[in-house]
Specification:
- The structure is a single chain.
- By secondary structure, the chain is an all-alpha fold.
- It has one domain.
- Helices cover 68% and strands 0% of the residues.
- The chain contains two helices and no strands.
- The longest helix is centred in the middle third of the chain and has 37 residues.
- The protein is rod-shaped, with a radius of gyration of 27 Å.
């Protein structure tokens, strides 16, 4: 089993030229940044709508009429 493991380690694409597996961070970090910023962009309108409806409910409960307090 150990021999098989070492064979796979030697055949790994990043080990062909003597690189270490630490180099998998290079493509992984931009991917994580893209996912994180994409989630922020996706959630921002939902969060704004939530806050807007929450504020409108508070105004209605306080008896606020458009333009008149």
């Amino acid at each position: 089993m150990r021999r098989f493991h070492f064979l796979i380690m030697d055949l790994h694409q990043l080990n062909f030229f003597g690189f270490k597996k630490v180099l998998t961070i290079i493509p992984g970090l931009p991917l994580l940044i893209a996912i994180f910023t994409g989630m922020i962009m996706w959630m921002t309108p939902k969060w704004r709508n939530y806050l807007k409806t929450k504020a409108n409910k508070k105004k209605e409960e306080a008896g606020y009429v458009r333009g008149i307090k």
